[in-house]
Amino acid sequence: MEKKQLMETIERLRSEMVELAEIKGSMLDDHVIAISQKLDRFLTYYQMRMQLGGKNTVGTISFSKAV
């Protein structure tokens, strides 16, 4: 995944999480937590990539868990 695409995905997930939390009235809603966990996986992947100089050789992280 390209850095630009990765950053767009992170920002989209962050926006979705905040919007849903506002709608549900809680950060503890199951769907909000699921998005937060998915966002965490993308942020971890991004951080690992940046530590490796932006190379795409981080390994396998599953991003496909349903939200």
From TrEMBL:
<dbReference type="InterPro" id="IPR036638">
    <property type="entry name" value="HLH_DNA-bd_sf"/>
</dbReference>
<dbReference type="Pfam" id="PF09388">
    <property type="entry name" value="SpoOE-like"/>
</dbReference>
<dbReference type="InterPro" id="IPR018540">
    <property type="entry name" value="Spo0E-like"/>
</dbReference>
<dbReference type="InterPro" id="IPR037208">
    <property type="entry name" value="Spo0E-like_sf"/>
</dbReference>
<protein>
    <submittedName>
        <fullName>Aspartyl-phosphate phosphatase Spo0E family protein</fullName>
    </submittedName>
</protein>
